[in-house]
């Protein structure tokens, strides 16, 4: 009954919006640029920065300084002449090979990772990740075709979300064991080299793109597992919203810092009408924003800061984005809601 009442209330908001528009006040409902549109532009810009060679920027990415700034997102090191790549790759490679230096080489990249994550939280996932853009484009395609997304129950979403921590542990421990002299596992290198390189869907997607435009030789090796994972990535991302973000090991590294990040998602419980739109539009299936009735802090470790909830909340000022305590964005009345609100 509670859910049904929330849906009816959301429908009433939309009807009220049409009524306000028809009153002829000369102002109508307040409108603004959608956050989703701004985010799409940022994602495309980030992809160009991460793989500028694809569009003919031959000198891009040659800076030795940038090569040591590893991003919190899931950028792949298989971009030709990319300026940098994901921190997780650096962790894996150093854990395997840096026994002699006692992992000193890892301290600065990890420090930079922590600083960048505290600065923006998991906004790296929604705004600057090369795996985020294809997921969002597949969602737009499915929406255009009128196909409903696969809904993941909150407890199942939590379970899937937990699997990425297991994945990080297995990958890091395995590469640690490969490099540790005492484990004597060097023979396993031929069977399964550093694992994330074999499973990264980025590798198949963007190496083949580089082959297509002549930036990489057609003989470039792409692991079969990477191709299979890429196909699975496309299939699950079309069926469910942001599925990869639930299991991404790079996201697992950022998640514990999301609560202490300087960028916050806030809620004014007094303005909330419990319409559930925030939950219905959330690609990460997060219930916390809807369920919170007292506190103002609603940033979850799963939140990728896409701000679909802020974009679609029908109540003025109910949801907002703050940085260092200063309000940057806020929910404003709109006459229609997006994908999650329509249930597609």
Shape: globular
Fraction of residues in H or I helices = 40-55%
- Percent of residues in β-strands: under 5%
- Average pLDDT figure: 78
What gap, in angstroms, lies between the N and C termini? 21 Å
Structural overview:
The protein is mainly alpha-helical. The protein has helices at residues 2-22, 35-50, 87-97, 104-120, 123-128, 132-144, 154-179, 195-199, 201-212, 224-239, 243-247, 249-254, 277-281, 288-291, 308-312, 339-342; strands at 263-267, 319-323, 326-330. The protein has a 3-stranded antiparallel beta sheet. α3 packs antiparallel against α4. Mean pLDDT is 78; it is low at 1-31.
Question: How are the elements arranged and paired?
Answer:
Layout: H1 2-22, H2 35-50, H3 87-97, H4 104-120, H5 123-128, H6 132-144, H7 154-179, H8 195-199, H9 201-212, H10 224-239, H11 243-247, H12 249-254, E1 263-267, H13 277-281, H14 288-291, H15 308-312, E2 319-323, E3 326-330, H16 339-342
Antiparallel strand pairs: 1-2, 2-3
Helix pairs in contact: 3-4, 3-7, 6-10, 9-10
């Amino acid at each position: 009954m509670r859910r049904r009442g929330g849906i009816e209330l959301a429908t009433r908001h939309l009807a009220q919006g049409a009524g306000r528009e028809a009153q002829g006040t000369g102002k109508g409902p307040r409108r603004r640029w959608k956050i989703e549109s701004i985010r799409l532009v940022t994602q495309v810009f980030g992809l160009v920065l991460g793989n500028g060679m694809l569009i003919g920027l031959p000198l891009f990415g040659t800076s030795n300084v940038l090569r040591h700034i590893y991003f919190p997102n899931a950028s792949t090191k298989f971009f030709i002449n990319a300026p940098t790549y994901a921190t997780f790759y650096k962790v894996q490679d150093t854990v395997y090979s840096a026994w002699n230096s006692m992992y000193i080489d890892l301290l600065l990249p990890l420090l930079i990772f922590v600083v960048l994550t505290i600065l923006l939280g998991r906004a790296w996932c929604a705004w600057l990740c090369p795996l985020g853009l294809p997921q969002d484009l597949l969602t737009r395609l499915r929406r255009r075709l009128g196909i409903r997304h696969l809904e993941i129950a909150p407890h199942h979403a939590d379970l899937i979300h937990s699997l990425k921590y297991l994945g990080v542990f297995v990958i890091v421990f395995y590469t640690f064991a490969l490099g540790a002299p005492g484990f004597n596992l060097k023979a396993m290198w031929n069977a399964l080299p550093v694992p994330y390189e074999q499973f990264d869907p980025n590798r198949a997607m963007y190496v083949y793109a580089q082959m297509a435009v002549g930036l990489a030789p057609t003989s470039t090796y792409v692991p079969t597992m990477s191709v299979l994972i890429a196909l699975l990535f496309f299939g699950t991302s079309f069926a469910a919203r942001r599925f990869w973000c639930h299991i991404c090991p790079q996201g697992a590294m950022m998640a514990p810092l999301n609560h202490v990040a300087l960028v916050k998602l806030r809620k004014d419980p007094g303005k909330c009408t419990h319409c559930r739109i925030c939950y219905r539009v959330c690609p990460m299936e997060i219930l916390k924003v809807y369920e919170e009735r007292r506190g103002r802090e609603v940033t979850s470790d799963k939140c990728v800061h896409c701000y679909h909830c802020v974009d679609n909340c029908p109540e003025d000022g109910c949801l907002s984005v703050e940085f260092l305590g200063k309000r940057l964005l806020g929910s404003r009345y709109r006459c229609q809601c997006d994908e999650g609100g329509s249930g597609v």
